[in-house]
Structure formats: structure tokens, C-alpha cells
């Protein structure tokens, strides 16, 4: 493997899009948008844990359809941990559904997951057209809806309650 071959991937559009998404996410975090989002979600969820958890799952699911699921999850983790304290909901009840909601709805668009971007970027090398932005949407929407319904109604009963005390100590 020559140095040129080893570094050739850094010039690809796919890598540039991923780098741009990470920069965008850092900007959103640094400007305080994430903190304001967390405060808003905590206020909307109030002291109703079920409503709060559904709000988190739906919010992450909708955003992840149009932004990278990895970045959506990275932005939502501090939001969920902070807002879960305010709403007195164990973060353990929200973090796994958050991750799965992001993954499931990330299949709707080509930028929803980095895997979709990589595959789309590689298709022209094999004489194929790159994936269209919403080309996977029919299947992705079905997967997203079924997955979110499961996360909203069945998953909360299956996720163990670790208690708020453990997470508060671990976060400090």
C-alpha cells in the first residue's frame, strides 16, 4: 500500500461530508443550542416520565432522519442526561431507546447514516448511480415507524430501572 493509496480516502466527497457534519455538530453544541433544546424538552415533558421519554424518542427519531444518526445521538446524549435529571427520569431508561430511534430513522435518507454515505460514494466506482437523497425512504419510513412504535410502547417495559441515584453519581 503506497502512501497515496492510504491517504486517497481523505479526498473523497463522503469523508468531506462526514467531516462537515462533525463540524456542524460541534458548532451546534458550542452555541448553546443543545442546552436550550434540553431545557425545552424537559419543560415539555415536565414531571410525566412516559411523556418525557416519548418526546425524546420522537425528537431524536425525526432529527436523525435528516441528520447523521451518530451526530444526532452525540448531540442528544448530554441533552437526555441533563433533562432526565430535571424530569426525575433515570437516564438508563432513555439512552438505549435514543440510540435505537436514531439508528432506525437514519435509514430514511442517504445522510442518515455514515454507512449510507459510504455506499453511495462507492457506487460510481462500479458504474452505478449514487443513491438519491430519499431513494431509501419507502423502506426507511416503514422501518422507522415500526421501530418507533416498538420503542414507544414495548421497550419501556423491557428496559430495567437502574434508579436515578446510580446515574447521578456516575455523571458527577
Overview of the molecule:
This protein is 73% helix and 0% strand. The chain is an all-alpha fold and 172 residues long. Helix 2 packs antiparallel against helix 7. The longest helix has 19 residues, at 69-87. It is globular, with a radius of gyration of 18 Å.
In terms of topology, how is this protein built?
Blueprint: H1 3-7, H2 13-30, H3 33-45, H4 49-66, H5 69-87, H6 92-105, H7 114-122, H8 137-153, H9 155-158, H10 164-171
Helix pairs in contact: 2-5, 2-7, 3-4, 3-5, 4-5, 4-6, 4-8, 5-6, 6-8
Query: How many beta strands in the DSSP annotation?
Result: 0
Envelope shape: globular
Strand content: under 5%
What is the succession of H and E elements? HHHHHHHHHH
Determine the N-to-C terminus distance. Answer: 46 Å
Which structural category fits the helices and strands?
mainly alpha
Mean pLDDT: 82
Proportion of residues in helical segments: over 70%
Query: Which parts are unreliable, with pLDDT below 50 for 5 consecutive residues or more?
Result: 165-172
| Secondary structure tally, helices | 10
Question: How is the biggest beta sheet arranged?
Answer: none
Determine Rg (CA atoms, Å). Answer: 18 Å
Quick structural gist:
This protein has 172 residues and is an all-alpha fold. The protein is 73% helix and 0% strand. It starts with a helix and ends with a helix.
Amino acid at each position: 500500500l503506497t502512501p497515496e493509496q492510504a491517504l486517497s480516502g481523505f479526498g473523497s466527497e463522503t469523508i468531506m461530508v462526514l467531516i462537515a457534519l462533525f463540524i456542524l455538530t460541534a458548532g451546534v453544541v458550542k452555541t448553546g443550542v443543545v442546552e436550550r433544546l434540553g431545557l425545552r424538552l424537559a419543560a415539555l415533558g415536565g414531571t410525566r416520565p412516559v411523556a418525557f421519554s416519548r418526546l425524546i424518542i420522537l425528537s431524536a427519531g425525526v432529527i436523525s432522519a435528516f441528520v447523521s444518526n451518530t451526530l444526532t445521538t452525540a448531540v442528544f446524549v448530554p441533552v437526555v442526561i441533563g433533562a432526565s435529571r430535571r424530569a426525575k427520569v433515570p437516564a438508563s431508561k432513555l439512552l438505549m431507546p435514543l440510540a435505537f430511534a436514531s439508528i432506525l430513522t437514519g435509514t430514511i435518507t442517504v445522510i442518515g447514516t455514515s454507512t449510507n454515505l459510504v455506499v453511495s460514494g462507492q457506487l460510481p466506482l462500479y458504474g452505478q448511480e449514487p443513491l438519491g437523497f430519499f431513494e431509501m425512504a419507502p423502506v426507511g419510513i416503514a422501518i422507522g415507524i415500526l421501530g418507533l412504535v416498538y420503542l414507544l410502547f414495548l421497550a419501556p417495559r423491557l428496559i430495567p430501572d437502574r434508579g436515578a441515584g446510580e446515574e447521578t453519581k456516575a455523571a458527577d
